[in-house]
Write a structure and sequence with these properties.
Elements lengths: L13 H21 L2 E2 L5 E3 H9 L3 H6 L2 E3 L5 E4 L4 H10 L9 E10 L11 E10 L4 H17 L5 E7 L3 H15 L8 H9 L2 H4 L4 H7 L11 H17 L4 E2 L11 E9 L7 E7 L3 H4 L7 E7 H10 L12 E5 L2 H16 L4 E3 L6 H11 L3 E5 L1 H6 L1 E6 L5 E5 L3 H15 L10
Parallel strand pairs: 1-5, 7-8, 12-13, 12-14
Antiparallel strand pairs: 2-4, 3-4, 5-6, 6-11, 7-9, 9-10, 10-11, 14-15, 15-16
Helix pairs in contact: 1-5, 5-10
The protein binds histidyl-adenosine monophosphate.
The site of histidyl-adenosine monophosphate has 26 residues, from strand 6, strand 10, strand 11 and helix 12.
């Protein structure tokens, strides 16, 4: 028990963390290109925020939240998603009085007590975006196009965009009546949760994951066919906008999303090739949420991409990640004098931005060179008393085997030049540069 991480959580180890760092860097670049600024909110919030925000008839709130009383007897919940916290922050910091739209992004961990399976975890990572203050379809198109740009930059090709509209308060209430009329005769065949939701939030029944409930509701009337004029026009605007940018989409009448805050546009990016957890990204508009959480009426829209799933899609597609930069130079040593010299030399190299390593284990010189190879060092130097006394040593290119005698006091400048040159040519490999 003690030596195993809790069910549904995973360590990200040094030999894979570079993939995450690469994706996070690309995310930050795309957000900068689109004018979205990073926001960081707490991992936990007052439970009520999610009850109100995400909705107390959703699976997330009813079944999946990590909720506990803190020592002050406050009910606290680990965030199951990012939107509610960002909305709370938007209200708390009076962002509604700043020039709109407010465009924010975040990279977070989120927590849901889920049935664990491939692509479904209890702690997972989301990259999310929230844009407040704009009600026209152009911001819907903008946030969707951000995802499109990110997926393209990452080289992902096997993902489809599905969109739908689930209307506003007005069309929802007319539609709910129709849906209830359709469901009522079959009510006793639905699961217990669906029966409970029938009066309070019948749309949730459409989103039930139980196979027999899905079968019963598969021919139920769709909200997108029952939109009010304004919501219909909004959806048409989104479609025209996507077409204008050349972004392909499908209309999927079945998308209702698992969170209650959505209005009008909802969308998902789905990969068909990674099995049942193929939804890499979900999002939509939430025009009532800021008000529900105690702020002024404010339109909003956003999405979140599950990073574990994104990585799965990339690996499945055979996308190669830029390997991490290994050690630029390893200084091997023979004897105490050389070891002291090397410790100072690697310190000076590191201060200059060169990745340098030396022996810390008292290994033999042979074992040190073996280790340097394992580290993938691009260059090496072996130092003994003689090298230090004569101020001369051989700088070796570990890839080609080429060796050149150099003055020890020029090592830092040489490495700096080599690195500067190679950064321009091939940023992740300095070893190709001649000494
Ligand atoms: P969501 O659909 O619940 O939406 O989650 C978004 C994405 O997070 C999913 O498409 C999936 O990739 C990933 N995800 C969700 N649950 C898990 C899990 N248990 N394990 C691994 N990955 C998971 C939201 O969270 C909304 N806050 C999105 C949003 C932002 N809508 C508007 N703004």
């Amino acid at each position: 028990m003690l030596t195993k991480s809790p069910k549904g959580t995973k360590d990200i180890l040094p030999n894979e963390v570079y993939k995450w760092q690469y994706i996070e860097k690309e995310i930050a670049k795309v957000c900068e290109n689109f004018g979205y600024r990073e926001i960081r909110t707490p991992i936990f919030e007052h439970t009520e925020l999610f009850q109100r925000g995400v909705g107390d008839t959703t699976d997330i709130v009813q079944k999946e939240m990590y909720t506990f009383l803190d020592k002050g007897k406050r009910s606290i919940t680990l965030r199951p998603e990012g939107t509610a916290g960002v909305v709370r922050s938007y209200i708390e910091h009076g962002m509604a009085s700043l020039p709109q739209p407010i465009k924010l992004y975040y990279n977070i961990t989120a927590y849901r007590y889920e049935n664990v399976q491939k692509g479904r975890y209890r702690e997972f990572h989301q990259f999310g975006v929230e844009a407040f203050g704009s009600e026209g379809p152009s911001i819907d198109v903008e946030v969707i196009s951000m995802i499109d740009v990110l997926l393209n930059r990452l080289g992902i090709s096997d993902i489809e965009l599905n969109i739908n509209s689930i209307g506003c308060k007005k069309c929802r209430s007319d539609y709910n009546a129709k849906l209830k009329e359709y469901i009522e005769p079959k009510l006793q065949n639905l699961c217990k949760t669906c029966v409970e939701r029938f009066d309070r939030n019948p749309l949730r029944i459409i989103d039930c994951k139980e196979e027999h409930c899905k079968e019963i509701t598969k021919d139920a009337p769709a909200l997108v066919d029952n939109l009010c004029e304004e919501c219909h026009e909004h959806l048409e605007g989104v479609k025209r906008g996507l077409e204008n940018l050349g972004i392909e989409y499908n209309i999927d009448k079945n998308i209702v999303r698992g969170l209650d805050y959505y209005t009008k546009t909802v969308f998902e990016f789905v990969s068909k090739n990674i099995g049942s957890q193929g939804t890499v990204c979900g999002g939509g508009r939430y025009d009532g949420l800021v008000e529900i959480c105690g702020g002024p009426p404010t339109p909003g829209i956003g999405f979140a991409i599950g990073l574990e799933r994104l990585l799965m899609v990339m690996e499945n597609q055979g996308i190669e990640f830029t390997a991490p930069r290994s050690t630029d130079i390893f200084i091997a040593t023979i004897g105490d004098k050389a070891q002291n010299y090397a410790q100072k030399l690697v310190y000076d190299l590191r201060k200059e931005g060169i990745n340098a390593e030396t022996d810390l284990m008292g290994k033999s010189v042979k074992a040190q060179m073996k280790y340097a190879n394992k580290l993938g060092a691009y260059y090496s130097i072996v130092l003994g008393d003689n090298e230090i006394d004569t101020n001369k040593a051989f700088l070796k290119n570990m890839d080609t085997g080429e060796e050149k005698e150099i003055s020890l006091d020029t090592v830092i400048d040489r490495l700096k030049n080599i690195k500067a040159e190679s950064v321009i040519k091939e940023p992740n490999k300095i070893g190709h540069t001649e000494i």
